Amino acid sequence: MISLAGRDILHSWSKFVLTGIGLGLLIGVTLTMAGVYRGMVDDARALLNNSGADLWVVQQDTQGPYAESSSLRDDAVRSVLGLPGVARAANVTYLTMQVRRAWASGAAPAGSGDDDVRAMVVGFEPGQPGEPGYLVAGRQITRSHYEAVADVRTGFNLGERIRIRRHDYTVVGLTRRMVSSGGDPMVFIPLKDAQEAQFLKDNDAIVNERARTAANPSLNRPGVPGLLEAIQASQANNRNVNAILVQVQSGTDAEVVAEPVRRWKHLEPFTREQMEEILVAKLIATSAKQIGMFLVILAIVSAAIVAFIIYTMTLGKIREIAVLKLIGTRNRTIAGMILQQALGLGLIGFVVGKVAATFWAPIFPKYVLLEPGDAVRGLVAVVMICALASTLAIRVALKVDPAAAIGG
Amino acid sequence: MNASSIGTRRLALIGLGILLVAAMSYVVMRSGPLAPTRVTVVQAAEGQITPQLFGIGTVEARRSYLIGPTTAGRVRSVTVDVGDTVKTGQPVAEMDPVDLDERTAALDASVARAGSAMAAAEAQRRDAQARRELAAVNARRYVELGRQNFISTGAVDARLQEQASADALLTAAEANLVAARQDQQRLVAERAGLRQQRANVRLLAPADGVVTSRDAEPGSTVVAGQAVLRVIEPSSLWVKVRLDQARSGGLTVGLPAQIVLRSSQGRPLPGKVARVEALSDSVTEERVAQIGFDQVPAGLSVGELAEVTLSLPPTSKAVLLPNAAIKRRNAQTGVWVIDAGALRFAPVRTGQASLDGQVQVLGGVKPGMTVVVHSEKEIGERGRIAVVDALAGRQP
Question: What is the ipTM of this complex?
Fold first, then answer.
């Protein structure tokens, strides 16, 4: 038995293939949009995974360090380390800022343009939680100052010098998928440098501040030599961090450790689940909903377009169907032909869409996560929409009067 | 439509289908859960490392002098400026002596007057002596006459009393003279003290050096101990370096050092650890050491930031791995070893590390084992891996 659908496709194959590719690109856009949404949520999760913590200890009554600003003294970690159930704990600072390439000559080479990258600068203690877990190139930081590990998305290369505030850092390692909740790539630098970068002002501000202190007669007393210098020295240093990352001993519930921190240390501990709740449900909620809304509309529109294309394609063949009916073809054969064509179109569209989405996803500036689950859901949806649309077309085809073949 | 054209079309369509299937399978195998994680590997090998310590510090003067008055007063003149070279004992500033000169003049007059008083006392002494000699002669004569009974005993007694009185007068006059001399000595000593005070308001350079700051100008009042000028010895400049406590093992006096000054980053300067302070900073968790330059460079500025790298003696031979290979997993430190195509987490103990990222591995890994260094994402025992040469980034 010859395949009616196959013969028909062979008859108008260019139209069929082009329609399939067009459909595919539309499906690709929908899949990509789903990927953008998944990517946003995954960025938030990646931030939590990368910190390697079971517990975040932040300033009391804040939801820091990602959703709100939080600041605590850097010696608070010592009292947290002494709590039962704590395996490791380390200070960490986060600061989102523009990181510049430092050109050796002081001037950027021609054509390099405005060469700064928006990045989240993370101050961490080497060998402690908060350290990048894996590298894609280079090495971990070994010096206690002026070395950096950057995410590949920053575009920095090994050995390059980057400038953060007052100091130049050498990129010694590259990592991947280390992003802030907003998708900004991370740059890891030693904690002491980060504390300085975060709280130390620029030179002009420091000089102004010194002059302001010196002009204050109660701080600059003529009879007390050394007082002014002492005050200025105390103004220039900073002992604050944003959070303490805690790893609990295996087998210990994070909540067990969190309770004494909340009650006795007067700090705010967040477990992994609470942090995820803050990040996903609060921090990126609006933008994620925005993308989600768009995704829903796009999916509906795509479904409608797929349905209409199948429908109009069948309507275009109404005369041929009438001829088939005239020569006594059974209804089942005609319906099968239409259904097979619709499903074929849908499958081609899906494959083209999936391939296209996979190839253009890495070009996006922010992370696009194409989940296999989404692809399977997309495939099921495409097949169902095609089947549904073809039933509409089949109804029209079966109702056609065989006389139309010779009439119209 | 003839059969051959349909055949061609069928072939073309089949080709297109194969292309789509191929693209799809490529996509499935290259992304998503079925895709292998790309990694780079290294063969564990034995070797030696030269562990190094790294710290930052500031240039400081080992000997710096604050020159100021010992009593409160007003600055009269400052003769040197910042950057001037001074010699030991060179007058650099002077305080206002207020009434010191006048008081010296008054004491001069007092000393002169004491000299006059001494002369008067001396004259009185001579007078008393003359009287005593006369009284003695008279007494002797009267005693002689009395013995021959020429005169009465009463007249002899009167002469003897006269002699005793003259003796006492002489003693008093001599004592007066001593008192006058002592008075003069006191005044001379007072005057010398005042002159010293006068000299003290002149501030002198205590050592050869360079003036680093001029803190008070003529006319300003300073309290006792407040600096008018600061002088450092340029030959005594060294770097006070702070090293993270966690990475300061092996820090001893005499370690060779490389000092990179912020002003000349391309030229490391040789030096040595000159002193390791016994107190370490408990707040910043840093140890403090002083690094002396082998040769103090010209134009060095105090307070300049310097990066210091100290070289420890080379370690004994051990398996070396890049520090990017060292991972933590469930509170265990270890490395991922590729064993017959499968991944295995091998717990290791790490030893010393060098600044270029090589770590000594003491046990857990044998030479020749293949160890994962870089990976695209976290790897586990189950994941598939594909070994590649490099994952990202230009190698420097």
Answer: 0.75
